[in-house]
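Write out the 3D structure for:
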Amino acid sequence: MERIAAVRSYWEAVEARNWSKSWSFLHEDFQAVWPVTKESWTREEFMRVNQEYPGDWHIRIDRIEPIDMGALSVVYVTLGQKWFYAISFFEFRDGMFLRVTEYWADGAEPPERKYKDRE
């Protein structure tokens, strides 16, 4: 339960732009990984990426679940008319986030599909 509460508090701090609080969740050996774009950051780099991301974005937590190594979260992010989902795997050490692996997906309307049985 503590891990779920930590992830929830982290996302709430990020949404509030409370950078000192969000920093407090990151272990000194923290690493963030975004496999889709092949990027990774140290604690300092990751905080800078979040602080400097342009625009008036907002985060809504959709779910947080416990997993063996820590916690999994799904958040919905809006930026003007654009929207995204982020699925994040949080690994812990000493009660802090040691590693976060995030998969980001752009929101899109479904493509128009034609099925033979529906024509």
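Strands lie at 26-34, 39-42, 57-67, 70-79, 82-93, 96-106.
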